[in-house]
Write a structure and sequence with these properties.
Low-confidence stretches of chain A: none
Number of helices of chain A: 13
Radius of gyration of chain B: 22 Å
Number of strands of chain B: 9
Structural class of chain B: alpha/beta
Distance between the termini of chain B: 32 Å
Number of helices of chain B: 14
Order of helices and strands of chain B: HEHEHEHHEHEHHHEHEEHHEHH
Strand content of chain B: 5-15%
Oligomer: heterodimer
Largest sheet of chain A: none
């Protein structure tokens, strides 16, 4: 037996092992995600029983024709965009601070900011309600300060955004921070040596080098907030509602399964469009690494 | 069913399934070892109902009838009911007895089991005390099962701010308009107390009976005056038209004195009140026509292994002794007519014990919830 043939045999063995390792998650993916997704899409496109055959966009027209559903979709996108913007504005400075500051205080902060990661969203939502509701802590404080009239902070869009922000900051800081860690100190020192101030260093070195982790953070945040259920269900108002809540209502309360599935497909299309940005960012980064 | 938390269902269902397996494997041995007859009692409900059985009914019953022992199986919020139904149905089809001697079942299972002949049809001959139950309630399910306790939605109000209790639905509406921001009801998707106020507005113009059974979407045009009334009330609701999620959230708004009046479940409200979780000045009253409510029924499976013992238990359940526990322990309504209850209790409950209106049929209820979102909170 020559070395070459031995090599190809072991390569084949390795290939088989690799396939065996990949197979279980692949099967789970196919049977629990791909197949149900395809059946769901077919269900939304098939005409009502007993009528013509072929595919129809009737359910889509019907669902999107309802003003309440349209306003729920717009509301969900708006909430997700606003939450992502607020999370980003709060977490980027925190990530920068944790990356560049030295000493005991940043170390303490690094532990503190992760706390929301370990609090289940149900508990966090109820905590936010007691915190923000009329006669709650915030309103009592504002009242003591002499501010008697202020907009309601919970059971509306404000409440959802505040709770989403609270729950999302640790995740955003972790990913942004990981990106910042990978920036070589030598580059920053170099910039400083040639006379760049902190702002110039940030704009010309840190921001561009961290652009891809930033895109990844933004897209993942958008998708998770857009598809959330617990926070909008508990902290949100009666109307408009976020799509997660609307879909659940159509499925479990109104017994209108097809409409619920159609909304799920619409939500998927919106999330997929955002996901495309994520995929491009990741592949661009991999190309850069090569 | 109405207080189910969606998040915990799968977990609880799994636990109940494990518990059922464990109990299923141990019960026959225990029964064989003891001389006494052991009745297996499957009860679905909240923890207050479990307490009612475990700390109230069962000790009192076994003391009175020492021949029997009772094995209690709790199905929290009805989780595991599918398995119990399958077990009874499976035994019936196989021509065998089942160890489910009594089952407090939700209406869906009751209906599904009738054509399968799963339940014993009761009569005063079999169960003398059934004569004390209001006959229309028994007729509603054709004498299958014993309606041993009821609860309904009532109007809860804080007497610190409200001197005269509302007597009618129109009184409540007038009060809401005169006191904007101090009333709300929960989103009807999330609790029966909210459904009660919404149906009350609809029933105000249609009467309750038309929508209690069957389903014809064309009839729903009659709901329009109700929607109009609810929409008019929106600006006068708490927080410019906010409806919290769930029965409990409304009680919390009451507790913080954010609102002074609301529609609440009689048993839940009285229970919160007794535990000191509502202001001491809280009062509850039923209006005319009454808000919706329902009865909990214990079914007697025809294939039960201990029919005689099960009937003894059911008959005892309808005695004033057992029915007093329903009132004292969970603030429920008795299954038997009030005239058979001790006089002091009758006086204590005279404000809320006025019966209740029927629930809309499941499909009508689903449409009511959907249309409420489209026509009331979004507005047209």
């Amino acid at each position: 037996m020559t070395d070459a043939r031995k090599g190809s045999a072991s390569a084949r063995k390795e290939g088989a092992l690799g396939l065996a390792l990949v197979l279980p998650p692949l099967l789970v993916l196919i049977f629990l995600i791909v197949v149900p997704a395809i059946t769901a899409i077919i269900e939304t496109l098939s005409p009502p029983a007993g009528t013509t055959t072929g595919l129809t966009f009737n359910t889509y027209a019907q669902v999107l024709g309802a003003r309440i559903v349209r306003s729920d979709i717009i509301f969900s996108v708006d909430i997700a965009l606003i939450s992502v913007a607020v999370v980003f504005c709060l977490s980027y400075p925190l990530a920068l601070y944790l990356r560049f500051a030295q000493g005991r205080l940043p170390a303490l902060f690094a532990v503190l900011f992760t706390i929301p990661l370990f609090v289940p969203v149900v508990i966090a939502s109820f905590a936010m309600i007691t915190f923000l509701v009329n006669h709650g802590l915030i309103s009592t404080m504002l009242y003591r300060l002499g501010i008697a009239r202020f907009p309601s902070l919970v059971y509306n869009a404000t409440g959802i955004v505040l709770t989403q922000v609270w729950a999302s900051i640790p995740f955003a800081v972790l990913i942004l921070g990981a990106g910042l860690q990978s920036i070589d100190d030598a580059l920053i020192d170099g910039a400083r040596d040639v006379g760049a101030g902190p702002l110039r260093t940030f704009v010309s070195i840190i921001l561009p080098l961290n652009a891809i982790p930033t895109m990844i953070t933004l897209t993942l945040l958008f998708i998770s907030i857009f598809g959330s259920f617990t926070i909008p269900y508990l902290v949100g108002g009666n109307a408009p509602q976020m799509l997660g809540v609307t879909m659940t209502n159509y499925l479990t309360q109104y017994f209108r399964r097809t409409e619920a599935v159609t909304m799920a497909v619409i939500a998927f299309i919106i999330a997929a469009a955002v996901g495309a940005i994520y995929v491009t960012s990741v592949s661009r980064r991999e190309r850069n690494l090569l | 069913m109405r207080r189910m938390t969606r998040f915990h269902r799968p977990v609880v269902a799994a636990l109940v399934a494990v518990a059922l397996v464990l109990i299923g494997s141990t019960v026959p041995n225990a029964a064989r070892a003891a001389e006494a007859v052991t009745l297996n009692l499957y009860i679905s409900g909240d923890t207050n109902v479990f307490d009612l059985f475990q700390k109230g009914f069962i000790p009192a019953f076994t003391q009175r009838y020492p021949k029997y022992k009772v094995n209690f199986v709790g199905l929290l919020h009805g989780n595991g009911s599918d398995g119990v139904y399958a077990k009874i149905l499976g035994a019936k089809r196989a021509g065998r007895t089942t160890d489910v001697d009594l089952w407090e079942a939700e209406p869906g299972y009751v209906d599904a089991g009738i054509p399968e002949n799963l339940w014993v049809k009761l009569s005063p001959k079999l169960l003398p005390n059934i004569a004390k139950v209001p006959q229309d309630i028994l007729q509603a399910v054709d004498y299958f099962g014993v309606p041993y306790r009821g609860s309904s939605v009532v109007i809860g109000y804080n007497s610190k701010f409200i001197n005269t209790a509302p007597r009618t639905f129109d009184d409540v509406v007038a009060w809401i308009k005169a006191n904007p921001g101090k009333f709300t009801y929960c989103d009807p998707n999330t609790g029966g107390s909210g459904q009660a106020f919404v149906t009350a507005a609809i029933y105000r113009f249609t009467g309750p009976d038309k929508f209690a059974k069957g389903y014809d979407p064309k009839e729903e045009a009659a709901w329009d005056p109700g929607w109009k009334l609810l929409r008019e009330l929106q600006p006068a609701m708490y927080n410019n038209g906010f409806h919290p999620n769930g029965n409990v959230a409304v009680l919390q708004l009451m507790a913080q004195e954010n609102i002074y009046m609301a529609s609440v479940w009689s048993d839940q409200g009285l229970d919160f009140f007794k535990r000191g979780q509502l202001p001491k000045t809280m009062k509850f009253t039923q209006i005319t026509p009454p808000l919706i409510g329902d009865d909990a029924r214990v079914m007697l499976p025809a294939g039960g292994a201990h029919l005689e013992g099960a009937m003894t238990f059911l008959n005892w359940l309808l005695t004033p002794e057992a029915q007093t526990m329903v009132i004292n322990m969970i603030a429920g309504y008795p299954g038997i007519e009030w005239k058979y209850m001790p006089a002091p209790l009758r006086d204590q409950f005279k404000d809320v014990a006025k019966g209740f209106s029927p629930y809309p049929s499941p499909k009508y209820l689903a449409d009511i919830k959907r249309l409420w979102h489209e026509k009331v909170v979004v507005g047209q």
